[in-house]
Amino acid sequence: MHYGVPHMYKRMCGRGGFKTHPYVGADNYPPLHRFVVIVLLFIGLPLGALSFTDELPPEQLASALVAEMTDEEALAQTFMLGWVGSEPSPLIMDWISQRGLGGVKIFGWNTADTTLLAQTVGRLQSASLKGRFGIPLFVATDQEGGVVRHIKGATSESPGNMAIGAGGYPRDAYLAGYYIGRELRLLGVNMNFAPTVDLFTNRNSTIIGPRAFGNEPVQAGILGAAFVKGQEEAGIISTAKHYPGHGDTALDSHGTLPRIPVSRETLENRELIPYKLLAKEGIPAIMSGHLAFPNTEGGETPASLSSFFLNDILREELGFKGLIITDDMMMVGATNSHNSLSAAAKEAMLAGNDVIMLSKTPLLDDAVWTRSLRSMQTEPDFNARVRKAAEDILRTKLEYLKAEHAVPSIPDIAAVQTGLPDKEGQDFFLDMATRSVTLIKADDGVFPLKPENAGRVMLAYRPYGGFISYGEKAYPDAMKYWYAESRGVSDLLFFARQMDTIIFCVQEKADLTMLNALKELALQGKRVIVFSLLSPVELEDISWVAGAIAVYSFAPESFNAGFSAMLGRIPFQGELP
After folding, report:
1. Residue 368, pLDDT above cutoff 50
2. Which residue(s) pair with 504 in the sheet?
3. In angstroms, rounded to a whole number, what is the distance separating the alpha carbons of residues 46 and 2?
4. Widest CA span in the chain
5. Which of 32, 168, 477, 552 is deepest in the core (most CB within 10 A)?
6. What is the average pLDDT across 19-38?
């Protein structure tokens, strides 16, 4: 059948027709779209019958699909939304079935029951696959390992990045990515916002802290690249974060816009090095951070909204070819420089992001959608930018979600129930934890600290179950003392005076008030040992203790390894990262 050009273009635009397209006029058809139509006719593929499952090279099929899409369909591919609750809300289902949403983000509030989560992912993907082109969703989460583990339930706890850095073995990073990825795969999660390659530059930072591999940029890049390779082996799309680097600030971009007053030269020699390495390794996605660098050409603009950072540096200088995904656009760091979320979202797209991520589901007619759609219909440059982003998104989906080892769109519920936690992965995480335990301080003869030479032992802790369960196994007759400021220092001292050894668990700076109350007893001969979780930076000013070790996480494997090292069953192998 012969199509006249106007009718052919109408078919190419899909249900919205050529009337909604800003380019359409008597003699004004987009050259790229006209070329795609000619190619489709040449290869004999009927217009209007395109599908994600068609057997065409990813770049060619991605271009053809976008050419066939309405403005609404192309724009929807660039949105990634979260929802509230353990089951999908009617609103998120409407975004999928009525809009053709591109991706969903799983947060901790969605994940208490991993079987229900797998069923939810299946429902979301089933709805998406029924769309006009049969395009699956990006299903993303934050499963970094260590302290950031959004999908809890039956999944493994792992020692995390700083433990990997303390061990220093790229193979540990690779296998951590692989086993975390294997669990996500069972749940139908195909994209992970990991690895975190921020550097532990600002020692007062609690937002990054043990999420970093350490403060050395080359090591962070090498370990990050190994983590990516492990996730890739499991079929997971990796997303490094938080570009260009969240490590040199104690502020949290959830509640403010951190301003990091470093020079461009410092950035290039420090924070950007991991991204340069990852770009060369072909990482598929990078998350842009809501961070301002006022002493660079980026000025006061958040990097996530800055063409200078996203195009000039990340694309042009570092040669990154993958997707750029915003951190949550509902964070204050993204919106405080704009009058509205809708204005910030449009600016983020124009600056070079491909995916606009929102932690909550907006209404179908929310301004964050209607403003961008109206701009597509009236601003040719914005229309072209959105369609380029949609094409890159589809190319990535075609490359990863149709690969031989792709994450299945519909999870196998029986496999979820028998496969989580990953038993092989748990064995590995314990093995990894043993390589990370770091000796911070030891007076002569303190370690190994065996029950027979420890005397009367107190385990002093906040309510960390792992510390007590493994501490009891190591020192069966120990007294357990749950310390809290509400109980007062005098209460702690009353019991500590009756002990020979106090093993004190430290997580954060607030714990040092109670710990320092023991200094007088230490000077009187009591043995005070610190068991440090998370970042060991808090231990720098407590040289008076008899001994201190660091394990970097709340994972059961970390507690197990820490007490095993204290008992002398394994050596202290870790180094401060």
Report:
1. yes
2. 460, 530
3. 11
4. 97
5. 552
6. 41
* CA distance linking residue 500 with residue 528, whole number of Å: 9
Specify the CATH class of 433-566 in words: alpha beta
Q: Given the structure tokens 């079935």, which residue do they identify?
A: 97
Comma-separated ranges of CATH 3.40.50.1700 domains in the chain: 433-566
Polymer length of the chain: 577
What 3-state DSSP class applies to 326?
A: strand
What angle separates helix 341-351 from helix 380-401, to the nearest 10 degrees? 70
pLDDT of residue 35: 54
Residue 542 contacts residue 511 (beta carbons within 8 Å): no
CA distance 546 to 444: 9
Cα-flanking dihedrals φ and ψ of residue 285, to 5°?
A: -155, 150
CATH class of residue range 58-71+79-419: alpha beta
Condensed to tens digits (0 to 9), the pLDDT of residues 373-391 reads 999 999 999 999 999 999 9
Say what the pLDDT of residue 39 is. Answer: 53
Q: Is the pLDDT of residue 311 over 80?
A: yes
Distance CA 198, CA 260 (A): 13
In this structure, the strands spanning 103-106 and 323-326 are: unpaired
Name 240's bridge partners: 286
DSSP 3-state of 292: strand
DSSP lists the bridge partners of residue 379 as: none
Q: Look at residue 137 and tell me whether its pLDDT is greater than 50.
A: yes
Neighbours of 131 (CB within 10 A): 19
Rg (CA), the chain: 26
Cβ atoms of 110 and 51 within 8 Å: the answer is no
- Sign of CA pseudo-dihedral 407, 408, 409, 410: negative
Quote the pLDDT of residue 541: 81
Segment 68-95 mean pLDDT: 97
* 149 vs 396: CA distance, rounded Å: 25
Identify the DSSP state of 95: I
**Lowest model confidence (mean pLDDT) among 44-48, 159-163, 267-271, 472-476:** 44-48
Question: Which segments of 379-488 does DSSP mark as H helices, in order?
Answer: 380-401, 413-419, 423-436, 451-454, 465-474
Which residue has better confidence, 487 or 459?
Answer: 459
Please state, rounded to an integer, the average pLDDT across all residues of the chain. Answer: 91
**Residue 171 to residue 326: CA distance in whole angstroms:** 29
Q: Helical H runs in 89-216?
A: 90-94, 114-129, 161-167, 170-186
* Side-chain-facing half-sphere of 382: CA atoms under 13 Å: 19
Closest CA to 437 of 550, 281, 534: 550
pLDDT, tens digit (0-9, with 9 covering 90-100), for 496-542? 999 999 999 999 888 998 999 999 999 999 999 999 999 988 788 88
How does DSSP classify residue 314?
I
Q: Where in the chain is the domain with CATH 3.20.20.300?
A: 58-71+79-419
Alpha-helical segments (H) within 191-291? 217-233, 264-269, 272-280
Q: Which of 237-246, 248-257, 270-279, 489-498 has the lowest mean pLDDT?
A: 248-257
**Identity at 24, one-letter amino acid code:** V
The helix or strand, by DSSP H or E, that contains position 106, with its residue range, turns out to be: strand 103-106
